[in-house]
Design a protein that fits this description.
The protein is mainly α and 154 residues long. The protein has a domain at 58-144: Ferritin, core subunit, four-helix bundle (Ferritin). It has 4 helices and no strands. Helix 2 (57-76) runs antiparallel to helix 3 (83-108) and helix 3 packs antiparallel against helix 4.
């Protein structure tokens, strides 16, 4: 009986991990989109412009650089007027920043659970970037076909 209870507790923790990861990802996406659309941090305590201790070291510098690159990429984007395309264009730099931060964790992090999470983030985000880039290429192809059809009809 003890083994059954122990297995049940372990399974519960394993199943809870993806939910926690998804919740954190949703919160990060929401905060990023709010910042991209308004220029105002959704969570001021997460502001990356605040003075940080100089002793953060190379790992902190890499994490900060990832966030700054993402914010720069996001701020350079303009709305296309297509909600789906805007979503994808905003998600691409967000996913790349997640990959860059996960790579910094793999280089500097010590905790096995966080290193595993970082590797999963890299794998998942790279796959999702490929999917979004494919969608953009297909979407551009559809726009080209529509434009070609409109010209032929004239």
């Amino acid at each position: 009986m003890a083994n059954k209870q122990s297995a049940s507790k372990t399974t519960g923790r394993i199943n809870a991990q993806p939910r926690l990861h998804q919740r954190a990802l949703v919160e990060l996406i929401t905060a990023t989109l709010i910042l991209a659309m308004t220029g105002v941090p959704a969570y001021p305590q997460h502001s990356h412009n605040a003075a940080q201790p100089a002793s953060g070291g190379p790992a902190w510098s890499e994490l900060q650089h990832s966030m700054e690159s993402m914010h720069e990429a996001l701020s350079s984007l303009k709305s296309t007027g297509n909600n789906d395309e805007d979503f994808v264009q905003l998600m691409l730099p967000h996913h790349q920043a997640a990959i860059d931060m996960a790579k910094a964790e793999l280089m500097h992090g010590q905790d096995p659970q966080m290193r595993r999470l970082a590797q999963e983030i890299i794998t998942d985000q790279e796959s999702e970037i490929e999917l979004m880039q494919l969608w953009l290429r297909q979407h551009d192809g559809q726009k080209s076909k529509s434009a070609t059809s409109a010209v032929k009809e004239q």
